[in-house]
Amino acid sequence: MEKKFKRTLITTALPYANGPVHIGHLAGVYVPADIYARYLRLKGEDVVMVGGSDEHGVPITIKAREEGVTPQDIVDRYHTIIKDAMAELGISFDVYSRTTSDIHRRTASDFFRKLYDDGQFEQQTSLQPYDEQAGEFLADRYVMGTCPHCGSDRAYGDQCEACGSSLNATDLIDPHSRLTSAPVTMRETSHWYLPLNKWEEALRRWILEGHKEWKTNVYGQCKSWLDLGLQPRAVSRDLNWGVPVPVEGAEGKVLYVWFDAPIGYISNTKELLPDTWEKYWKDPESRVINFIGKDNIVFHCIVFPAMLMAYGDGYQLPDNVPANEFLNLEGDKISTSRNWAVWLHEYLRDFPGKQDVLRYVLTANAPETKDNDFTWADFQARNNNELVAILGNFVNRAMVLTHKYFGGEVPQAGTLEEIDLRLIADLAKVKENLEANLDTFHFREALKDAMEIARLGNKYLQETEPWKVAKTDMTRVATILNCALQLCANIAVAFEPFLPFMSAKLSGMLGMESTSWNELGCSTLIPAGRKLGEPVLLFDKIDDDAIQAQLDRLARIKEENKIKNFKAEPQAPDVDFDTFMKADLRVGTVLECTKVPKADKLLKFLIDDGLGTRTIVSGIAKYYNPEDLVGKQVCFIANLPPRKLKGIVSQGMILSAENADGSLVVMGPTAPVVPGAQVK
After folding, report:
1. Cα–Cα dist 66/187, whole Å
2. DSSP 640
């Protein structure tokens, strides 16, 4: 029998405050967490949702160095952007704090010190990358070199972003410091380690035997780690930004961010509930739910629980960790470094008032069991074909018909017919399925269940046709519209966890002052005689221009990335001067230019070469309109042997340069010269 808890603490992964949040963060963590928190609140349960910005660690210091500002400047900027954007999207944190707060620094420091005093750490000395010129140890991301797997010369000390391989700094070929470009040396340094191996058997029993109900991806990843055997993990590092290690002689060392950040859940709860926070963390009748992405599974299912086990004092381990997979964007992995993302604060600017549309699409495409893809075409289709044409259409029809036939008052229902009773029975089934999916963190399926209410409503109106019945039986029309309006009220309840802004608007139109999950499935949610508000469209269509603007933005980003990452080809082997001089480079004027039939890439040029005319065939048709080249002067090699292309004898080669995006640019003089002039 499933255990019942008195209260629930929901935690959400802390986003790094080195940039804004994007749709991948939202789909993976924050929208699912908010859905669940709102659901529990609607049920009247004691639930608290805590979150905050992760403001320590190397990504922050890298960003600060790049911009020439302090780490505090960076986190102050992005914490505000993140917090404000989350609030505008309706992510209903009870507290959204930060790891640079005083209460967090004290909590994290005290947590470390207790483990230290209890002898829970091992101190180890190891060789770590060091920059002799800067005089400091280097985190993995500050080391760059050549990837031993793919040969990219821009691999980092923890990962090659070109081929995706996980690396150690010592794996790189010719590693150098990103700070000074100096070669990396290895120097001894001492750190404290949490011996995860000490807690391996306890973790194995807790997870593999005690939590077989966890999502397959979570359970499977934990089992893989446990089967490989756990190793001690460093909890400190050499860095000047973070929570200082509270031990004498540890100057220049801070708590490793993976150790520091999850303690933020505790400090955030303390900040919100200074007198009662322990109830949510230490009472056996409380449960903790960690919402995270799959890249954080090991930290929340193995490392943080081991920290809590080592600490003792009654801390409850997570009851569930419903981690999601990754969300891609237009078929490509979301990447903050490449700016390949849909940033929340920009979405809110570009689509004002459409918070629920994004929430809906991200839930409908939630990467719950495997990586999924966000496309702007799907975004538009789901808005226009589902939110507008199904949900919004049903509510609008019910409201408009009520205003037309009953002056905007909820009519009194008469005797229910079989079709009405079937509608009520179907609604009860929807509630049952919806609750089952929400309780087991299947939010994508739960959203389909909620949308089923609107589908039932449209089908009901289509089958009962009150606009036709009105010609003969207004009593029956009153019953039909009463049933339809009760469905609208149920929509307001069922969708509150998913689309809170729509739900509030609909509740206002129906005169519902408050909603409760216990009311879902009820066929008498709004009383007869209630005056309804004026019908207002819940959603409107998104036009092609708005979508094209987003696609154009992504196309620009893709081109910018190509240019930024462009790497010139290695220089060709040297040739002696006499060999070079054998090439006769000249300037000619284009007299005619036409496309070569049945050859998409080829253009046929007739060129004035100063001695007469010559024909040259060039593969640049993808990049130029033929008429645009007529009258232009181009450089060409005059003394190449004639070559037949598509039946045309080409007498030379036009010189072009290849751009970072693969496009070709015809080379020519910057000022007019006489045809036939030699290139010297």
Report:
1. 26
2. S
Domains defined along the chain, listed by start: 7-115+219-224+255-327 (3.40.50.620), 122-194 (2.170.220.10), 375-519 (1.10.730.10), 577-666 (2.40.50.140)
Mean pLDDT of 425-437: 97
Reported in sequence order, the residue ranges of 242-285 that DSSP labels E, i.e. its strands, are 253-255
pLDDT of residue 2: 67
**Three-class secondary structure assignment of 526-564:** CCCCCECCCCCCCCCCCCHHHHHHHHHHHHHHHHHHHHH
Beta bridge partners of 666: 656
What is the C-alpha to C-alpha distance for residues 364 and 383, in angstroms, rounded to an integer? 11
**Rounded Cα–Cα distance for residues 489 and 483 (Å):** 10
Q: Give the H/E segment covering residue 352.
A: none
Give the start-end residues of each E strand in 102-171: 122-131, 136-137, 143-146, 155-156
Measured CA angle at 366 (ends 362, 367), to 5 deg:
135
Q: How confident is the model at residue 486 (pLDDT cuts 50, 70, 90)?
A: very high
Strands 46-53 and 95-98, by their bridges, are: parallel
d(CA 145, CA 517): 56
Q: What is the pTM of this model?
A: 0.86
Query: Which has the closest alpha carbon to 371: 419, 313, 323, 302?
Result: 323
Q: How far apart are CA 139 and CA 126, in angstroms?
A: 14
The number of C-alpha atoms within 13 Å of 229 and in the hemisphere containing its C-beta is 1
For residue 380, what are the CA distances in angstroms to 174, 354, 374? Answer: 48, 12, 11
CB distance 636 to 677 below 8 Å? no
3-state secondary structure of 664: strand
Strands (E), 412-470: none
pLDDT range class, residue 515, cuts 50, 70, 90: confident
CA-wise closest residue to 288 among 261, 266, 313, 319: 319
Per-residue burial over 433-463, b if 16 or more Cβ lie within 10 Å, else e, is bbbebbeebbbbebbbbbbbbbbbbbebbee
**Three state DSSP letters for 174-240:** EEEECCCCCECEEEEEEEEEECHHHHHHHHHHHHHHCCCCCCHHHHHHHHHHHHHCCCCEECEEECC
Cβ of 303: how many Cβ atoms within 10 Å?
22
